[in-house]
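Supplementary Methods S3. Input chains for the assembly prediction are listed below.
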Amino acid sequence: DTGVSQDPRHKITKRGQNVTFRCDPISEHNRLYWYRQTLGQGPEFLTYFQNEAQLEKSRLLSDRFSAERPKGSFSTLEIQRTEQGDSAMYLCASSPTGQDTIYFGEGSWLTVV
Amino acid sequence: AQSVSQHNHHVILSEAASLELGCNYSYGGTVNLFWYVQYPGQHLQLLLKYFSGDPLVKGIKGFEAEFIKSKFSFNLRKPSVQWSDTAEYFCAVNAGPTGGGNKLTFGTGTQLKVEL
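Predicted structure tokens for the full assembly:
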């Protein structure tokens, strides 16, 4: 399968713990995106990378959230000191530079208890 | 800022019925428009997209959408739905070629249930 891969698919964590999600984009896709989706809502943009550079961050991305893409390939999204309001599906997507179609992964479900 | 409205949150149809899902966006400049579908337990998949040219675009599985610039709309249609079309449908927009990457703004989605 050559689609966008996310890991883990599901994570249950206690409030206050840190969690990290990993995303492997489609090979040779320069752009990588993180979105968040809660029940009954559409995906909301969090941040995106062009290669290793993080070019835009949403106001939704509080100081407890950090995303990296150190070598311009895979990316990680870390949430520190999780809160119940962080419970959501975290979607990763990728696209080639210059093309406007982005391809989504299956998402990582986070439940904070 | 861009925004997208999907007014139908839940739609129930019988097989063979015709489908039209509404989508309106707010953005005054050049836009690219998309419909994504999420089947139960699966990831978001692109159904169709409009960048420029013919405002009537055809996508996969018999879906089509019409871009009406004067109405800021991009409604999704299918003449005859099937049980397998049961899914959640999302309309999305991004600013034109100079907009921030390919950042998409999504609507809240429409849950379609097709009954046999």
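Chain B has no helices and twelve strands. The radius of gyration of chain B is 14 Å.
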